Amino acid sequence: MSLTSAQPSSAHEAWDRLRASVRGAVDAQTFDIWLAPLCAVELQDQLVVLAAPDTTRQWIANRFGPLLDSAAAAVLGDGFTVTVLDASSARDGTQRPQHPAPSAGGGDDEPLHPKLVFEQFVIGSSNRFAHAAALAVAELPGHAYNPLFIYGPPGVGKTHLLHSIGNYARAYGGGITVRATTAERFTGEFVGALQRGDLERFKARFRRADVLLVDDVQFLQSKARTEEEFFHTFNALHDCGAQLVLTSDRLPRDLGALEDRLRARFEAGLVTDISAPDEAVRLAVLHKRVHHDGIVLADPAALDAIAERVTQSLRALEAALVRVVAFHSLTGRPIDAALAVEVLDGLGLGAPASRARRTAPPTVEHILHVTCAEFGITRDEILSPSRLPHIAGPRQIAMHLARAHTAESLPAIARHFGGRDHTTIMRASRRVDQRLASDPDICEVVRRLTERLVRDR
Questions:
Q1: Strand bridging mode 39-44 / 47-52
Q2: How far is Cα 353 from Cα 395, in angstroms, rounded to an integer?
Q3: Are 352 and 308 in contact (CB under 8 A)?
């Protein structure tokens, strides 16, 4: 019998204790590259569920599975084991550990990926409107846009926004009930409820939510009984003011195999898209991942090479970075442009036909600098709580520029402005938008500052 402390109360507590034990069993570089990126997803009795990047999950499970299991038994207690899912399956629930599935009347909490939050979402021209809509819904569920329907190709951030809404609502919603599922999981649980004869428990579970998040609703097509049940669930929630957020790989009108009445419900709220990320977003995502995972680059041009060649999917972008880091770990070669190009060539990702000049987006600090210079005020003044017009006006313009021209999230921008709330940034940006429509002087100032930011890149 192992000598252990009290059993963990959550997956995060379990992984924190396991991480401390495993860190001492491998060298620092191995831990940082392969084990540090793992994140806790769920604790089922004595099974700790972790998520790993899709491209390396199997390798991590094979190489470190025995180590994780032995650490779990030693640190958490006899009988504890670990399973490693790939990140996409952990997010959408399509792959579950080999334990009994929860009943239709299970607990209030569905797994939301803890790393999929607004602070980690990189904003760009391809997703700015969808991000703003998602944040508005998270702040005022059932009031802003209901339903919110987000569509776009795979791997561009739809699931990230969906889970960001759920994580935000759970953190700041005063105890409201959030349910996150996928169309496939909804279908599976519905069929299971029919077979068990406990359909009423299934209905109660989904129809008593304050926020229902459904990923990949295109998979409801051609499932007549599931469509009918989802239609009634949708109506029940909408009629009582609950928030619905749906994602799909296409517009509602392009879901041809879906019933007309369900497509009409999807189109009744706000429909917004996320397109393939531009190069500025791709670079920002890579830089954020490198910073978050503590990856040491011998040459930042390695990220330029990846961003230039992997263009359609953020998921594929991060997978390419993982492959480059893995090659570096196994060969000892530095992470530079040459290594990135070699790995990408091996994946069949050759050089693009044209290579436009790459420019990084301006930073919030640079926007503060040029705005202060334009208006002749100091940085301390623009960050102060002063509401004097000659200070508050420039501050609002700087906030507007930061939201329009950086890849930072609203909460991150707010921190640059003296730790203000992100809703202040939203209000300031809307105020400047209103003034741009009626004030030629403001138009000229914003135009001049924007030209300066572009010129300084």
A1: antiparallel
A2: 42
A3: yes
Contact 271, 242 (CB under 8 A): no
What are the C-alpha distances in Å from 91 to residues 4, 115, 162, 254? Answer: 31, 10, 10, 25
Render pLDDT for 107-137 as a digit per residue (tens, 0 to 9).
Answer: 334 578 887 888 888 888 788 889 999 999 9
Q: Which among 81, 79, 51, 53 has a CA at the least distance from the CA of 67?
A: 81
Residue with tokens 């540090």: 36
pLDDT at site 163: 93
With the CA atoms of 375, 376, 378 and 384 taken in that order, what torsion angle do they form, in degrees rounded to the nearest 10? -40
Q: Which superfamily, per CATH, for 364-455?
A: DnaA protein, C-terminal DNA-binding domain (1.10.1750.10)
Inter-residue contact 166 to 211 (CB < 8 Å): yes
Per the CB < 8 A criterion, the answer to whether 370 and 449 are in contact is yes
In three-state secondary structure terms, 242 is coil
**Fold (topology level) of 279-346:** Helicase, Ruva Protein; domain 3 (1.10.8)
* pLDDT per residue as tens digits for the range 59-90: 787 778 888 887 888 788 878 889 888 765 55
- What architecture is the 11-92 domain classified under in CATH? 2-Layer Sandwich (3.30)
Q: What is the pTM of this model?
A: 0.56
Name the more confident of 298 and 372. 372
CB-neighbour burial class of residue 328 (10 A; exposed 0-12, middle 13-18, buried 19+): buried
Of 90-94, 300-304, 326-330, give the range with the top mean pLDDT.
300-304
Give the span between the Cα atoms of 322 and 104, in whole angstroms. 37
Using CA atoms, how far apart are residues 39 and 16, in angstroms rounded to an integer?
A: 10
Of 121, 36, 68, the residue nearest 295 (C-alpha):
36
SS3 of residue 213 by DSSP: strand
Residue 94 near residue 185, CB atoms below 8 Å: yes
Alpha helices in 24-144 (DSSP H): 28-30, 57-75, 87-92, 128-139
Residue 104 scores a pLDDT above 70: no
| Phi and psi at residue 200, to the nearest 5° | -65, -35
Q: Enter the CATH code of domain 118-273.
A: 3.40.50.300
What is the C-alpha separation between 17 and 4, in angstroms, rounded? 11
Q: Where are the domains of the chain?
A: 11-92, 118-273, 279-346, 364-455
Residue-level pLDDT at 353: 43
DSSP letter for 351, please.
Answer: -
Mean pLDDT across the stretch 179-186? 88
C-alpha span between 170 and 180 (Å, rounded): 11
Coil, strand, or helix at residue 148? strand
- The H or E element that residue 179 is part of is strand 178-182
